[in-house]
Fold this sequence. Notes:
With 344 residues, this protein is α+β, with helices and mostly antiparallel strands. It has helices spanning 2-42, 88-113, 117-150, 158-187, 191-216, 262-265; strands at residues 43-57, 63-68, 75-76, 81-85, 219-221, 226-231, 238-239, 246-261, 273-277, 286-299, 313-321, 333-339. The protein is 47% helix and 26% strand. The strands form two sheets. A six-stranded antiparallel barrel has the order 1-8-11-10-9-12. Strand 9 and strand 10 form a beta hairpin. Helix 2 runs antiparallel to helix 5 (191-216) and helix 3 packs antiparallel against helix 4. The radius of gyration is 50 Å and the shape is rod-shaped.
Amino acid sequence: MAPEVFGHSTTMKKAFLSLAAIAALALLAWAWLHFAARDRDNALTLYGNVDIRQISLAFDGSGRVLELRVDEGDRVKAGDVLATLDTRTLSLQAEYALAQIGVQRQNLLRLRNGSRPEEIAHARSSLLAARAEAQRARKDLARLLSIAENTKDRGVSAQDLDRVKTAARVADARVEQERNALRLAEIGPREEDIAAAKAQLEASEAQLALLRHQIAQGELKAPADAVVRSRLLEPGDMATPQKPVYALALTHPKWVRVYVAEPDLGKLKPGQAARVTTDSRPDPPIAGKVGYISSVAEFTPKSVQTEDLRTSLVYELRVIVEDADDALRLGQPATVELTVGDAQ
């Protein structure tokens, strides 16, 4: 009897252990399902597409494209020269304007300095000569008048007398002319002439600055760090401000444009943490945060339309991402996961 009792006791113990193991597994399964369900209740999954800002880059002026330095896919930094125009004509015009400025500066300097001492001395000499000539003419006139008076107008002809009188008047007029010339030389140029010369010089300097600005506009520079999406012109093409040369995609910021239904709208707030994944990069997720939340409802876009949301109104949501590895591309489908349990 002892062996049978011992065997029965062993069997009972094994059965008890099996039931305990089954109960433990059931408890673990219940706990996993419970917490998984709770996580699902606290998680919000949204679907959308990657969006970035783009630039259509064109020259400020018109001209023929001389050189293009980058191609599609190249990364550029802010300030990099991407393309140049042929500015030879503008350079020649700038050289001519610079020479004109040199002439006008010397002219303004001459006016500001006034008359030279040599010019004033020359004017005085001319005045002395004119006075001497006037004195001689007056003496000739006096001599002829004396002869005419002593001979009762028979010693001098009327023509000679008229000629000498005219010469005396001309000599006096020349004295007055030379006196005025000396006065002008001593006074110097008029203030109006100096101001006009200065204004003309400033106008020429402004014209030169404009030409240099137009020459500088012959370089097309990147306004920010970006990636070249499209090269739209080639060397030899005519460029205008209305004709883009490059299309650039900015590398920062990037966001995922998603749409959330009204029942879930209250679960979200700006700055809320998010995780972004794509089919090509499911792990690790890219960190992000909720940025813009639209205040206006709209119909679900076709790109994210599903059967149960076909006629629903949704709100646009932008999730800003920190894509340091530049893994996301424009228009790429993406999945956004947000934990909403503590968003209220």
